[in-house]
Structures are given as structure tokens and as C-alpha cells.
Design goal:
alpha+beta; four-stranded mixed β-sheet; 9 helices; 4 strands; about 55% helix; about 5% strand
Amino acid sequence: MKLYTYFRSSAAYRVRIALNLKGIAYDAVPVHLLRNGGEQLGDAYRAVNPSMLVPALEVDGDVFGQSLAIIEYLEETHPQTPLLPQDAISRARVRALALSIAADAHPIGNLRVLKYLTGQVGVTEEVKLGWQQHWLRSGLATLESLLANDARTGRYCHGDTPTLADCCLVPQVFNAQRFNVDTTPYPTVMRIHQACGELPAFQQAHPSQQPDAE
């Protein structure tokens, strides 16, 4: 099993956490998103993943992308240490929490959007940073409301074991901290982030621990 990854990619970070939680061994294949104009845009990686995004997972010659699809595949093929609850309502809640990050908040501030803003649109670096910080705050505020006002929130996003939602929460907080967003208005999010950070699976998935970390 190969994971095409980049140490600072939030989407790849999610998958690394899931692989670690499930105890699945994998080979990391770094794809540098900035070097030489972005290795993901070159012919070699385009042949692997036509979407030119990371992560991508290769299993016995089959390759597919999209972090949540990859984690769902891992859930179906390696049911030990489940990342989704047993009942349908709870599974829907966990997926909704995950998608509030992965579909609503994160894509607005990912690399290709930011490059378009400074390139084609022509905004300054200061304006770009303000854009990043605005959408990071907005996403964390939504997540805080969803978590703080629901009795099903436990030590983690849903109950007292990590789920798919936690795999998404931690990388998003990493992004917020990286871009100097004040996280004190989101105490529930940060409490869960701290709880996750005590687990080896999350520690080992951290960008600083990756072979391509700079």
C-alpha cells in the first residue's frame, strides 16, 4: 500500500491519522506541492492521479484519491478500530462534522485557490493571508457550534474514541495555528485537539514527523 502524500497537506494528514489509528502499514511517497512549480502538476504524478491532488492511495495497482473516500475504503477493508459509529444517525453526524471541514472550510483556503488569488486575481500577500484567516475562523466557529451544543460530543468529536471527524479536525487546527489564527474562541475544538494530540497515531501523523518535512 502506497500513500502519495505531502507533509503539510491537510487531506494527506487526515489519511495518515486514519492509517495510524487502524495500525495499517504503508509506504509514503512524497509529492512536493511547491518544488519545481509543484510536482503534482508534472506528467509523472498526473499519470498516477489525473486530479493532480494529494493524497492518493495505491492498493494492488489500483489508485484513487480524495481523503474521505480513502478513509471510507480503509474503514470497509480494515474494520478494526472503527472510525465510524455503529448506528446510522451517529455515522451521519460524524460524516457531517468531517464534511463541514473537508468540503466547506478547507477547500476555500487550499494551495490552488491561494495561488489563483495571488496570480490571476492579483491580490497581495496580506490580502491572501486575510482570506485564509477569515475562512479558517469561519470553519472553526461552525465546528465549535456543532460540537459544543451536542451531548454526543465526548472526549473526541463523537463519544470517547476517535472517529473520522477527529481525523479532519486536527489538520484544520494545524492550519489555523500555522496561519496565526487565534483559537481561543473555540474551546471545545481545542479541547478535542489536545486529547487527540496525546495519542501516538496523531503524533506520528503530524507534518513535522514526515520524511519530507522541511
